[in-house]
């Protein structure tokens, strides 16, 4: 991708320098995860793909949404929410 004058855009330059060298491995991992979750969906229904993602992810049966605990109890520290 290039700008109107033919020079590479900053996003394209970043892609070429940072992501492109690692893309084949990144793509393989993403594809494997996608296929794994598709199999889990086929085998276990809607809950299947989410059961092994993260302990802080909880599916609410019948509610149609997921709850994500971004600060699970296993975390050793939590950021302060106090406003001073």
Word description of this protein:
With 84 residues, the protein is of the alpha+beta class. The protein has one domain. The protein has 2 helices and 2 strands. A two-stranded antiparallel sheet has the order 1-2. The C terminus is likely disordered.
Annotate the secondary structure layout:
Layout: H1 10-19, H2 23-44, E1 57-60, E2 65-68
Antiparallel strand pairs: 1-2
Q: What descriptive keywords fit this protein?
A:
84 residues, alpha+beta
Low-confidence stretches: 80-84
State the domain count. Answer: 1
The averaged pLDDT comes out at 76
Secondary-structure element sequence?
HHEE
Distance between the termini: 47 Å
Number of helices: 2
So what's the overall shape? elongated
Class from secondary-structure proportions = alpha+beta
- Regarding quaternary structure, what we see is single chain
Number of strands: 2
Radius of gyration: 20 Å
In short:
By secondary structure, the chain is an alpha+beta fold. Helix content is 38%, strand content 10%. Strands 1-2 form a two-stranded antiparallel ribbon.
């Amino acid at each position: 991708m290039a700008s109107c004058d033919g020079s590479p855009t900053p996003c394209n330059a970043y892609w070429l320098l940072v992501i492109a060298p690692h893309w084949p491995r990144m793509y393989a991992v993403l594809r494997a995860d996608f296929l794994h979750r598709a199999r889990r969906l086929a085998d276990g229904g809607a809950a299947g793909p989410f059961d092994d993602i993260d302990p802080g992810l909880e599916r609410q049966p019948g509610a149609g949404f997921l709850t994500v605990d971004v600060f699970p109890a296993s975390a050793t520290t939590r950021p302060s929410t106090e406003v001073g």
